[in-house]
Specification:
single chain, 622 residues
Length: 622
């Protein structure tokens, strides 16, 4: 082992800051030249407390080296390294302590965008344009989260989206992308059969389990070469306003880390080289979406059509938003110095910002009954060319923020360690004013039903506000499918109100279909004809592309499964005891988590179930 003096003289750092940290200086012989450089950087950045407790060489040597292995990882995974992270943290913590408003000097106004009405001519036109354009798109799923907040111990994408068929979110997303791929190919007369790339951003918490879910299900029908997993690293926690790195309370040789936020997706796509591969392959769009919104793909074709038609560099999917509703508003901000940007402004910042800039009433509903600032649902469509140009400048670094929980009004100490965070939707903050940034608004029933609250929290939501639970998420799928069928002329009975896990929800007929059956409004319209009716207590699951429904009266449960080469015509009168919903208590541990967080299970009493596994033409008339 080198002597400390030799190690120091080799690097020419005698008399430098390290000499002021005797415990570190004594141990330098353990460290490689690269690790000594990192040590020097840490001391220069005011982090000498990390070594205060270090014992003599020969005690805990492996643990000391492990700390530097961790420092090397934290340094290499953050653009600009740890020094840059600490410097940014100090600036943001000083702003936070001073109560500085990030929107000072900005005036809000309503940006330009497209408001769509489901099923009208305009909507159908945009949907077709989007399907045509889909083969030029790549999809990015941000899936770094576990379901703990939902009362579910698995990864969120493994959670069943609905329990009629048990399809999980990841399966539904992949099948939706494959259906888009196929529909795009058909619509463009097969000019170019391209596999749509599908990237998933994972985290330490979800990476192995996401891979296992994919591999054990043969990637749900997608080629494994289409799917790329990008793992996000965590960032160092900060223990005070001086941005001193926090040591793990359980291990003094480890820095405490927490997730950095989904904004990392941009730097990961850039540094992985995926964006370049996509550009070289002739792709034009990148669509970003989050892990538990079962309705999203009903909105994607038309939204992509808007991007292509309006040539938006950035298109945020949005839903109508009530004034002061707890969802961010998409807003144009114009600064006194001429800068402007279109971004998400959190609801608790939007109202005071409006009041401070000449709107005494703040955020109020317009004559439409909604706020003129649409609700951001964190689904983005970016044009690939301008996106790459921007990332060349920034390296994918997104403007960060810090949200320390202070012990008291003096703001001198934190209740617990904090860290810098960044959000995917803050990407437009660095764009030039010439960037075409717009939005697409669709009805909430069609586009947005996230699953993010556990039963207890959902039951406390004020009446009239969305629950955003597994219960409401599943019911929203049945509601959307029922309303789509109503729109194409099916007589669908009105829902009844029921209470599950303390949440009162509308229960519509339990209608589900595979994306390959009805990806767009036009597809559904072509497959359902004549005089059809569905009673409220009914269940219908369509698992096949070429299933045509004509003159069907359904009062009970009907399940049709078919291979792509089978054409099945379904009609007549189906009546049976059906499938019924039975209440389950979320505290009942004898019931699987993914069921009890909904507050109901399906009792499958009687049904007509048909499977067509051979090519050919078939009829089912009851």
């Amino acid at each position: 082992m080198e002597s400390t003096t030799e190690a120091l003289s080799k690097l020419g750092i005698n008399g430098d800051p390290i000499s002021s940290v005797p415990n570190l200086q004594k141990n330098l012989g353990l460290l490689s030249p690269e690790q000594i450089e990192l040590a020097k950087m840490l001391v220069e950045m005011g982090q000498s407390h990390l070594f205060q407790h270090w014992p003599e060489p020969g005690v805990d040597d492996e643990e000391k080296k492990a700390l530097f292995d961790q420092v090397a990882r934290l340094n290499s995974s953050y653009p600009g390294g740890l020094a840059s992270y600490i410097k940014t943290a100090r600036e943001l913590l000083a702003d936070s302590k001073a109560g500085k408003n990030p929107f000072d000097g900005f005036t809000p106004s309503v940006p330009t965008g497209e408001n769509l009405t489901f099923g009208d001519e305009n909507f159908i036109k945009f949907e077709e344009a989007g399907v045509r354009e889909a083969q030029n798109a790549a999809f990015v799923l941000v899936a770094g989260g576990l379901g703990e907040r939902l009362g579910y111990n698995g990864i969120k994408v493994a959670l069943p989206m609905e329990t009629t068929t048990g399809t999980c979110f990841l399966q539904h997303y992949i099948e939706s992308v494959l259906a888009l791929q196929e529909a795009s190919f058909r619509l463009t007369q097969g000019k170019c059969q391209r596999d749509i790339p599908f990237a998933i951003m994972t985290s330490d918490d979800t990476h192995a389990r996401t891979l296992q879910l994919l591999e054990s299900n043969s990637y749900f029908g997608m080629k494994s070469s289409q799917v790329k997993l990008l793992k996000q690293e965590k960032v160092a926690c900060l223990e005070d306003n001086d941005a001193r790195l926090a040591l793990d309370p359980q291990n003094k040789y480890s820095i405490q880390t927490k997730p950095h936020g989904h904004g990392d997706v941009h730097s990961l796509l850039y540094s992985s080289g995926l964006l370049k591969i996509w550009e070289d392959a002739g792709l034009r769009w990148v669509l970003f979406f989050q892990d538990t919104n079962g309705l999203l793909f009903k909105a994607i074709p038309a939204s992509l059509g808007v991007s292509a038609t309006k040539q938006y560099h950035v298109n945020s999917l949005a839903v109508p938003r009530k004034a002061k509703e707890a969802i961010g508003g998409i807003t144009r901000l114009t600064h006194a110095d001429g800068r402007s940007m279109v971004i998400n402004v959190e609801y608790n910042q939007l109202d005071p910002l409006l009041r401070a800039t000449g709107h005494p009433d703040g955020d109020v509903n317009s004559e439409t009954g909604y706020s003129p600032f649409p609700g951001n649902i964190n689904q983005l469509i970016l044009e690939l060319g301008p996106y790459i140009e921007e990332l060349k400048k920034t390296g994918g670094v997104i403007k960060e923020f810090v949200n320390p929980k202070y012990k008291d009004a003096s703001k001198t100490s934190f209740k617990s360690s904090t860290r810098l965070e960044c959000m995917m939707q803050d990407y437009p903050k660095t764009l030039p004013p010439s960037a075409r940034v717009g939005f697409t608004v669709m009805d909430t029933w069609l586009a947005y039903a996230p699953v993010k609250n556990n039963p207890e929290d959902a039951a406390k939501v004020p009446k009239g506000n969305p629950y955003h639970s597994a219960t409401s998420g599943e019911m929203a799928i049945y509601r959307a499918n029922s309303l789509i069928l109503k729109k194409v002329g099916v007589k669908v009975d009105d829902p009844v109100h029921q209470v599950f896990n303390g949440q009162e929800v509308e229960v519509w007929p339990r209608i589900t279909w595979k994306p390959t059956w009805g990806l767009t409004f036009s597809e559904v319209k072509n497959k359902v004809t004549g005089s059809c009716s569905i009673s409220q207590r009914s269940t219908m699951a369509i698992k096949g592309r070429n299933v045509f429904i004509k003159d069907l009266s359904l009062d009970g449960a009907l399940v049709i499964e078919s291979v792509d080469e089978a054409e099945v015509k379904v009609g007549g009168s189906v009546q049976n005891k059906g499938w019924i919903l039975e209440n389950v208590d979320y505290k009942d541990t004898s019931v699987p988590e993914e069921i009890r967080i909904r507050g109901f299970r399906i009792n499958k009493i009687e049904q007509i179930e048909k499977h067509y596994g051979e090519p050919g033409k078939f009829g089912l008339t009851v």
